Amino acid sequence: MKNFDLRYNNIPKAEIHCHLEGAIRTQTIIDIAREHGLKLPAYQVDELNRHVKVYDQLHDLQAVLEAFKIFQDSMVSPSAVERIAWELFEDSARQNIKLFEVRFSPDWAFHGHNLDWDACLEGLLRAQQRAERELDMVIGIIAITSRSMGADSCVRTVDWAIRHRQHIQAVDLADGELLYPMSDFIRPMRKAREAGLKITVHTGEDTPASAVIDTINHFMPDRIGHGIHIIEDMQAVELVKEKGLTLEVNPWSNYLTNSVPRIEHHPLKKLFDLGVRVTINSDDPEVLETNVNNEYRIAHEVLGMSLEEIRTCNRFAQEASFIPEDKKARVRKYFQ
Ligand SMILES: [Zn+2]
User: Fold this and answer.
1) How far is the CA of 35 from the centre of ligand 1 (A)?
2) Residue pair 177/225 in contact by the 8 Å Cβ criterion
3) Which residues are placed with Cβ below 5 angstroms of ligand 1, an ion?
4) Sorting pLDDT into bands at 50, 70 and 90, what band is 61?
5) Ligand 1 centre from 210 Cα, in Å?
6) Taking the mean position of all CA atoms in its chain, how far away is CA 172?
7) Domains of the chain by start residue, with CATH
8) Are 123 and 82 in contact (CB under 8 A)?
């Protein structure tokens, strides 16, 4: 549930793990569908929410696939991308998010309507510049390469991100860790690193600690998406600490996707207490019907973290952010 409790809302925030494709307002899906003659299962917000939101813990993947299909179908033009991004930045600013990194998979998000990636990036950049001007926040951009789209897609995405490295800070290897071997992606991800892009990898979400260890050894990432299952192996915990890696943790997402069976057993606080640099993020705030305030509520009220500890997580996020240092400096005062 979206949360605007002032105890959480008043904390200046850094969010570094949020997917554009999982962050489209329901009303916007309806507006875009009407404008472009797209078919939806419903045209009222309340009714459509039943198709585009995951409220309960998933026992079958079909619900979330349907939601993402509708979200993908909403990316009809560069101006739609601009609107979706702008609204996400507005929703972030409303929660007092001062430093924000948005990520998206160009091949996945834009191939449905066969859109030009460069034109879509321009739309996103217009929203970014406006938000940085009007909303007292700084924004970074991460290009995702989706494992499920294959090795060729990874090569294309990395080359594209390198071409736009003035605007794109990092590449994220995401989705389907169980189904696709990491060996297919090592070479292009290495190329991204050599070109000066930062690397983050989704791992240890629904895979064991050993997957995180392999990922660290093969990709030398700067950060880890999720990584929560390292809690099952102290060797993995030590490796993450030794490398100074920051985990991008998304508690409610981990519960809904059944990566942790019960929210009260989420290892966020345990990892924090062990000295791991954990950060608290929303992942897909519209699909999962959450926001960062809600993640803080869970951290504080369910997992027992103090507000001071949550502020420390914000400092970790600010320090590990891929946004260039000169730009970060504009909001550093909020995280001291
Ligand atoms: Zn994610």
Assistant:
1) 30
2) no
3) 283
4) low
5) 19
6) 9
7) 6-335 (3.20.20.140)
8) yes
